[in-house]
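Table S2 (text version). Query chain:
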Amino acid sequence: MKSFSVFVYFLQNKSTKRNFIVLSKFFAFLGAMVCLYAALFHALMLFEGHEYSWITGFYWVLTVMSTLGFGDIIFHTDLGLFFTLVVLLSGVIFMLILLPFTFVQFFYQPWLEAQQKAQTPRNLPKATEGHIILTSLDPITATLIKKLKKYGYHYVLLEPDLNMAQELHEQGYNVVVGEYDDPETYNRLQLRQARLVVTTNDDLTNTSIAFTIRELTDRVPIVTAADNEHSIDILEFPGNTRVIEFTRMLGHRLAGRTHGTCMGPTLLGSFDSLVFAELPAVETSFIDKTLTQTRLREVTGLTVVGLWKRGQILPPMPQAIITPSTVLILAGTEAQLERYEKLFNKSCQLHTGEPPVLILGGGRVGHAAAETLQEQRIPYTIVEKSSAIVKRHGDNHLQGDAADIKTLRRAGIEEARTVLITTHHDAMNIYLAFYCRQLRPNIQVISRAIADRTVPKLYRAGADLVMSSASLGANAILSILRPDELSMFTEGLNIFRSPVPSSLAGKSLIKSKIRELSGCTIIAIKSGQEQEVSPDPASKLLKGDEIILIGTTENEAKFLQLYGK
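Corresponding structure-token output:
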């Protein structure tokens, strides 16, 4: 059955007919040559006084042309021997060289290609529903695919290039071949039954995809990535549900963590009346204090449910020391958060006029970070290698190689308070993080990471804080599918909810050993309409209650493995 489907696909290929015509012409020419040689064989044998049947003539021609030459039938005259040489040489050329080459090129190789292409799916079963359609494989969607698998979502990757689709299929991706601008492609992907479409191609392709999809349905939401701020309005016009400029978002978040900014808590999300926020300790009065000494809960009512330090999530122990690189994870009500912001705004002092922030890389992320610093009236210098970018933007730009000590000194590395590393190459980011740390052991180093796997390397290289653009995009998209889960895209720290596992019902929080077994920390217990934030270790987990937990991506996966989804 499989061979039959390959054969059908082979016959439907546009080039198959052309190949068959070439092959038929070649075999017709070869057959005519054999017939001509057989006729000449009879004429020359009669000239020598011998008479053979036509079968014998064809037999002699084929044995000579194939160089078998059994020698049972031979000529005795020079003319006959010369004719034998002509038949032999033409046989070498046409049967031993051209025939195999022609057969391989016009039949065997297309057949192998048909086998490979037939293995790559071209449609989804009609019963498929609730799936996510991805139109590009990049760091964002690669990270998203891992998360979709973890949560049990079915996805399909659309790829127009057959060779690339075959390669991705062999790597284990669920890929379907099809053109972006062909409505039939999306019909074969069961578009109307899909849960979400994610387009992370360039702006032109994303616009074309959105118009094509909206020809078929207005129901399925589309999330698209915008390369440029000016493209957002255009991308929203064809019906994209949500347009996200990931690079700009990342730049703002990078700048918000620098010394001297007054960004305050960043809202992560909420569960009913409970809100979560992340607060960089930079430029707060909490530096060098313990959690107890901050009196944060007493003054505002907010609870610190986690501490993030240089790539590690730490439990909020009362004697934990807060450093400039610490990020506090806060939980409480909106009123409590507003109370903190009022207090924070009073105590925050902008450090204008002090040494600048160095931004290494003048791309979209670097300029987005510069916008935030400019709003905060913090001086900055962008180091960019491209003369075209420096010429276009002018002020606050320095042309040069950030890996050159002379360039860094001209930019002010010896006086700078913070270095933001925003290049589009992870290897360069690792190099610059290590280089800046060696030059200035006490400088704040904040770096961008393209791929999640680079995050721990950047921390080892000396970065104080690393933000992954892949996690940013993946978690922003995932939040649409799972609004009840919050993710700190910068470090892979997740806040999620779960019903109390049946195996833990009736046990106290301390006896459940959730933290010891999974690494996750319960930050709230919801029972009916009541919600207990930072519950007492003696609190009991009751059947029907809901728990809200915090942990890394790996911790969450372990929790799901132990207690189910």
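Notes on Table S2: The CA atoms of residues 60 and 72 lie 9 Å apart. The domain at 263-347 is CATH 3.30.70.1450 (Alpha-Beta Plaits).
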